[in-house]
């Protein structure tokens, strides 16, 4: 039985306009339970800039800085510098961007900031496409997915970019994956990142999107859990770019995961087999990095 | 003013700042389904003849709330320490965890809670109604009679129990060997019943005349005196066989009965097994002779297995036809049987196999083929206008309401079914006095646990359990992602070589840590244990927690349904929103 021993106070307000069952909202809720009051969140254009509320409303009980799509890491660097100038080293600065804003358009700002060793936590909540503008593919969209820009038989034929490896390659002190379906693991990682002040920490959070994926809203957590259970989205941590720790070993087959989502419903058994092989290959690669 | 301050003030003028919460948007209007909390029925409790609230009992045990857990049992059964030893535990067969790895050791946990009550000297506090001035006579201080007295007393009646033997307990005292049920355990639980105010009059064998006298002094009579006479075998030489039930009685009465040689025990029920296992302990070599097959024996499977391990032999498909004496030995002539068609009750019918017979030379023959009423007034009459036949008792109303219960009417003659009979009788009589004869059936069916015949006294008395849905949680409704495989607890027991040398109890009671970790395996099917998943995952922050009670705030709930799916134990439901 899972009994969670976790902070209880929520910094998310009711009345926000996230879709029913929104995984990105749950991600923010869980993260802020750990990060607490002394947090500033920097949000670029993405679903979360809408969920956060129309002016003059706010869905969070902590300050948010809305910023341009490409600039999360740059803006977060600036907020950090301003706080430091005010002598506030306690407040955590969190860049909070979608996969499009991280893997694609925000990537150069992010790469630059982490290379400069900026002191913030950068969170990419990954719903595997540009959801806010109507499900366009991103470089995080996995092989096999139908989106509005990869429709019909033109479903996406390239693999999902491995963002954690890209960040680990910057040799930052902490890079981790997390899932909303494993709240205790996710919250532990946020706590760890929060306490590792002084440089960039990157957390890649898998956040299901019932609307964009074609999954019933009540299965939002279940589908996120299956992604981990099938090794589609492994839970692991990398310290200093080299020290790997695996947090969960999945053993379920990928078709269970794919068949629950209409974004994959066109796939043939052969396609599914291809995806299974990709997952196996990535998993073996990861195990090699984890070591014995 | 420093430059830094100046520039931050300047910026605050240029950046628009949100100052109000999104809470003004009542997003609950988006919702077309409504989730809700609804405790439901666990399959174990529906399978339990007395309908114990097992999922809740285990939940309390995990939290270390042993007294509360015990009280939850005592709502439905006055005999946890006894039933924790002798019950055939159909609950475990129905346990959802059985489909995942192994069923919860419900029976051992019940015994643990029953025993700890005496070790820790708990004075249980459960609901008892004030005296209502009515008196009930109860014939027989066995499990049915004592249960009837227990429940009736809790409902406010004054009960006199009349027992023919010189100590109460009936079959529990005289029929079950002490290696299965030590007397101090039984005495403790009977004492607890007496502490409620039940008066037990021992050494009072009643006759039919009592039913006439009773009218003057009592408002009803419960007959739970069981079957006083062993069933005859109707074979030649039968008088040479020892009456097995009397033999068990003599052992429990403290008589030293050394035995030797080979002894045939005729029968296939629990008594036959008890007799054979007792004979092993007294030094003899028992052979059980049974006319059907081993798998058809009405004895509990676990008991048969134990008997075989202890060295009891079982010879199946042999029907005794006569007993002859030969010197100091007996020759038992046996007709070989074969399996014919199925009976109506699913058991295989056996028929003689040609005219083949065998003979078995033994030192003694014991009979244990069952028991029957010794006097006709203990059998429910037929063809009277006011008679109500319920699952565990029969009520007649001529001059005085009389309930026939326990083994007199139960088709399943187990201790727990006897307790169920006493409970059913208590509810039926109380309903009769409160609401009249014609309401008994309806009132009782309101108190059913799930769809089973088991009745809940907690529901009858208006406790929280009455809000439980009748729906029985199926395995596929449990969210097994929240559970890890884990072997069930094993309890320590006396090694076989030692246990067959004495009548001391074989199994030990679970340790506190053993019991708590076993209880932790329980899914708590259908019962909220406060895991808080619903509140943790709700994307709308629409689950509130106040005074340990969770509620859904429909101003904001968008009806995504995550809370319902992520409830590990299916204690939530979702329904379409009514417009
Ligand atoms: C420079 C720029 N290009 C395009 C847009 C339009 N736009 C707003 S949100 C968005 C998609 C964001 O996708 P992602 O970062 O994955 O976040 P999600 O919406 O999926 O949460 C786009 C393309 C923009 N705001 N700015
Ligand atoms: S897991 Fe617990 S509640 Fe569920 S059937 Fe088994 S004992 Fe009963
Ligand atoms: Mg996205």
Textual characterization of the structure:
The complex is a heterodimer of chains A (292) and B (579). With 292 residues, chain A is α/β, with parallel strands linked by helices. Chain A has one domain: Thiamin diphosphate (ThDP)-binding fold, Pyr/PP domains (Rossmann fold). Chain A is 37% helix and 14% strand. Chain A has eleven helices and nine strands. Chain A has an eight-stranded mixed sheet, sandwiched between helices. The longest helix of chain A is centred in the last third of the chain and has 22 residues. Chain A is globular and about 60 Å long. In chain B, a hairpin with a 3-residue loop joins strand 19 and strand 20. Chain B has 579 residues and is of the alpha/beta class. In chain B, the strands form seven sheets. Chain B has a seven-stranded mixed sheet, sandwiched between helices. In chain B, strands 9-16-10-11-12 form a five-stranded parallel sheet. Chain B has a three-stranded antiparallel sheet with strand order 13-14-15, with no helix packed on it. Chain B folds into four domains: 67 residues, Alpha-Beta Plaits, CATH 3.30.70.20; 134 residues, Orthogonal Bundle (Fumarate Reductase Iron-sulfur Protein, Chain B, domain 2); 167 residues, FAD/NAD(P)-binding domain, CATH 3.50.50; 139 residues, FAD/NAD(P)-binding domain, CATH 3.50.50.60. In chain B, helix 5 packs antiparallel against helix 7. At the A-B interface, helix 1, strand 2 and helix 9 of A face strand 1, helix 20 and helix 21 of B. Bound molecules: thiamine diphosphate (TPP), iron/sulfur cluster (SF4) and magnesium ion. The site of thiamine diphosphate has 16 residues of chain A, from helix 4.
């Amino acid at each position: 039985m899972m009994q969670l021993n976790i902070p209880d106070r929520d910094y998310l307000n009711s009345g926000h306009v996230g879709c029913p069952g929104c995984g990105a909202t749950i991600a923010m809720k869980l993260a802020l339970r750990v990060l607490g009051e002394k947090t500033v969140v920097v949000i670029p254009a993405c679903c979360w800039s809408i969920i956060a509320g129309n002016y003059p409303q706010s869905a969070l009980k902590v300050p948010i800085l809305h910023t341009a799509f490409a600039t999360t890491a740059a803006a977060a660097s600036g907020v950090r510098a301003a706080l430091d100038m005010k002598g506030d080293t306690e407040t955590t600065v969190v860049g909070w961007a979608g996969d499009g804003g991280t893997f694609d358009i925000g990537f150069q700002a992010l790469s630059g900031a982490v290379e400069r060793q900026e002191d913030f936590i950068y969170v990419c909540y990954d719903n595997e496409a540009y959801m806010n503008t109507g499900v366009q593919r991103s470089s995080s969209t996995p092989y096999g997915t139908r989106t509005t820009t990869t429709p019909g038989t033109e479903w996406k034929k390239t693999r999902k970019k491995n963002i954690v490896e890209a960040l680990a390659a910057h040799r930052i002190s902490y890079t981790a994956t997390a899932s909303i379906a494993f709240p205790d693991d996710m919250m532990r990682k946020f706590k760890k990142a929060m306490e590792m002040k002084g440089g960039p920490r990157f957390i890649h959070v898998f956040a299901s999107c019932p609307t964009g994926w074609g999954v019933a809203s009540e299965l939002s957590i279940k589908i996120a859990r299956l992604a981990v259970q099938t090794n589609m989205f492994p839970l692991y941590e990398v310290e200093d770019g080299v020290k790997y720790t695996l947090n969960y070993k999945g053993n379920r087959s990928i078709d269970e995961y794919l068949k629950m989502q209409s974004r994959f419903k066109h796939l043939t058994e052969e396609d599914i087999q291809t995806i299974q092989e990709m997952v196996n290959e990535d998993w073996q690669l990861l195990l090699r990095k984890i070591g014995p | 003013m420093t430059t830094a301050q100046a520039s931050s003030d300047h910026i605050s003028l240029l950046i628009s700042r949100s100052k109000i919460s999104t809470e003004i948007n009542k997003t609950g209007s988006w919702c077309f389904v409504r989730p809700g909390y609804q405790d439901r029925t666990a399959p174990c409790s529906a399978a339990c003849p007395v309908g114990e609230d097992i999922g809740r009992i285990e939940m309390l045990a995990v939290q270390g709330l042993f007294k509360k857990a015990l009280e939850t049992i005592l709502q439905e059964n006055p005999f946890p320490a006894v039933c924790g030893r002798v019950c055939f535990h159909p609950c475990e067969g129905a346990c959802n965890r059985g489909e995942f790895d192994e069923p919860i050791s419900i029976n051992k946990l019940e015994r643990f809670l029953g025993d700890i009550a005496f070790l820790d000297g708990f004075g249980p506090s459960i609901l008892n109604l004030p005296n209502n001035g009515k008196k009930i006579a109860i014939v027989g201080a066995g499990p049915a009679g004592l249960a009837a007295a227990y429940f009736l007393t809790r409902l406010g009646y004054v009960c006199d129990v009349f027992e023919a033997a010189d100590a109460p307990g009936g079959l529990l005292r005289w029929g079950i060997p002490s290696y299965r049920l030590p007397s101090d355990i039984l005495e403790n639980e009977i004492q607890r019943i007496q502490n409620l105010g039940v008066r037990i009059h021992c050494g009072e064998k009643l006759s039919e005349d009592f039913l006439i006298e009773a009218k003057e002094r009592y408002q009803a009579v419960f007959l739970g005196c069981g079957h006083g006479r062993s069933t005859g075998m109707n074979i030649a030489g039968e008088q040479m066989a020892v009456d097995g039930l009397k033999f068990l009685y003599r052992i429990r009465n403290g008589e030293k009965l050394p035995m030797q040689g080979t002894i045939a025990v005729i029968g296939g029920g629990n008594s036959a097994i008890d007799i054979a296992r007792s004979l092993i302990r007294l030094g003899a070599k028992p052979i059980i002779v049974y006319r059907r097959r081993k798998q058809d024996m009405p004895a509990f499977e676990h008991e048969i297995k134990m008997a075989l391990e202890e060295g009891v032999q079982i010879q199946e498909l042999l029907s005794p036809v006569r007993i002859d004496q030969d010197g100091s030995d007996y020759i038992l002539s046996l007709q070989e049987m074969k399996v014919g068609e199925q009976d109506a009750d699913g058991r295989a019918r056996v028929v003689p196999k040609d005219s083949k017979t065998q003979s078995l030379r033994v030192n003694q023959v014991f009979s244990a083929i069952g028991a029957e009423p010794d006097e006709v007034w203990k059998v429910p009459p037929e063809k009277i206008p006011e008679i109500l036949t319920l699952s565990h008792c029969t009520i007649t109303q001529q001059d005085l309401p009389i309930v026939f219960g326990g083994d007199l009417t139960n088709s399943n003659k187990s201790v727990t079914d006897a307790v169920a009979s006493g409970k059913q009788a208590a509810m039926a009589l109380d309903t009769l006095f409160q609401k009249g004869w014609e309401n008994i059936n309806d009132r009782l069916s309101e108190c059913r646990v799930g769809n089973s015949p088991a009745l809940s006294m907690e529901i009858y008395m208006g406790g929280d359990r009455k809000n439980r849905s009748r729906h029985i949680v199926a395995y596929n409704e449990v969210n097994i992602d929240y559970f890890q495989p884990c072997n069930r607890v094993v309890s320590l027991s006396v090694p076989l070589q030692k246990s067959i040398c004495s009548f001391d109890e074989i199994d030990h009671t679970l340790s506190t840590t053993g019991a708590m970790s076993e209880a932790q395996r329980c899914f708590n099917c259908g019962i909220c244990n406060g895991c808080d998943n619903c509140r943790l995952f709700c994307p709308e922050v629409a689950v509130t927690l106040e005074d340990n009670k969770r509620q859904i705030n429909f101003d904001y709930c968008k009806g995504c349904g995550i809370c319902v799916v992520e409830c590990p134990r299916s204690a939530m439901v979702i329904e379409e929103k009514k417009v």
